[in-house]
Amino acid sequence: MIKNLQDTTTLYNGVHMPWMGLGVFKVDEGPELEHAVKTAIKHGYRSIDTAAIYGNEAGVGRGIRQGLKEAGISREELFVTSKVWNSDLGYEATLTAYELSLQKLTLDYLDLYLIHWPVAGKFTEAWRALETLYKEGRVKAIGVSNFQIHHLQELMNMAEIKPMVNQVEFHPRLIQTELRAFCREQNIQLEAWSPLMQGQLLDNPLLQQIAAKYHKSVAQIILRWDLQNGVVTIPKSTKEQRIIENADVFDFQLTTEDMQQIERLNQDLRVGPDPDNFDF
Questions:
Q1: Quick one: pLDDT band at residue 279, thresholds 50, 70, 90?
Q2: Confidence at residue 227, expressed as pLDDT on a 0 to 100 scale
Q3: For the chain, what is the domain count?
Q4: Per-residue pLDDT, 26
Q5: What are the DSSP calls for the chain, one per residue?
Q6: Predicted TM-score (pTM) of this structure
Q7: How far apart are CA 210 and CA 208, in angstroms?
Q8: Which of 12, 45, 54, 113 is catalytic?
């Protein structure tokens, strides 16, 4: 059982990745972003997830520096993720994009670097670049985002190093059963983006009923469901109280019946693009 915010899953290469982190998708550069990152670190978060396309890596870097200083912890205690965007998926372009992300974040390395989307015909060369960064010790772990089973199979057919993480849209309306099973078999850690379905699940009657039973919020129930499914989760918030609340999910455990009821909410419904039909 995952007991606290600092608990980690061990990736197949031995790297420890926190089960929960802060996502910063659609958070603009500025004081709000920096405060959110600093606040998360202050309240015990040890994982921050950003991406080149978010346009906020510099602000995330400032928030990290402030947060580490105020919390009195070292860079090595924080797990930082970024992602290479679709326009930079060549071998050399990916290497350059990685350096630019480090510069913006003012970091010497990333803990996890991901290919953001499986652009047909491009992601294999980008993966070779990630392998190079990993073999050179420039990044602690490498992985992908939004990859379906056939994308993973195509990648693994040419890869020297298998992805360590696959970050995908995952919530009770999109439970990705087959993909979860495949990643489990391959020892690839699944990670959820948009775990709260961008707020669309907060008024669901079943989830409200389960939340009342545990004296928790609907968001807390969903995040707990993620963790009990063995899925790393990165809820986004810029509000201090919500950041604290999202992390308050370690003092209860959903029953098997609750887990199954939540799973039955599945409709294979996405709020983000379909990885097979994304207009890149």
A1: low
A2: 98
A3: 1
A4: 85
A5: ---STT-EEE-TTS-EEESB-EE-TTPPSSHHHHHHHHHHHHTT--EEE--GGGT-HHHHHHHHHHHHHHHT--GGG-EEEEEE-GGG-SHHHHHHHHHHHHHHHT-S-EEEEEE-S--TTTHHHHHHHHHHHHHTTSEEEEEEES--HHHHHHHHHH-SS--SEEEEE-BTTB--HHHHHHHHHHTPEEEEESTTGGGTTTT-HHHHHHHHHHT--HHHHHHHHHHHTT-EE--B---HHHHHHHT--SS----HHHHHHHHTT-----SS--TTS---
A6: 0.97
A7: 6
A8: 54
Confidence category of residue 1, pLDDT binned at 50, 70, 90: confident
Dihedrals phi, psi of 15, to nearest 5 degrees: -75, 140
Amino acid at 205: P
Whether 85 is in a domain gets the answer: yes
Q: Which pLDDT value is given to residue 20?
A: 98
**CATH number of the structural domain spanning residue 187:** 3.20.20.100
Say if 215 falls within a structural domain.
no
Could you tell me the residue range of the domain that residue 130 belongs to?
A: 8-199+231-236
Residues 6+ apart with CB under 8 A from 235: 20, 22, 23, 195, 196, 219, 223, 246
Residues sharing a CB contact under 8 Å with residue 9, sequence separation 6 or more, in sequence order: 16, 17, 19, 189, 230, 232
Mean pLDDT to the nearest integer, 252-260: 98
Would you say residue 88 lies in a domain? yes
Contact present, 197 and 235 (Cβ < 8 Å): no
Tell me whether residue 113 is one of the annotated catalytic residues.
no
Q: What is the pLDDT of residues 112-169, one digit of tens each?
A: 999 999 998 899 999 999 999 999 999 999 999 999 999 999 999 999 999 999 999 9
**116 assigned ligand-binding residue:** yes
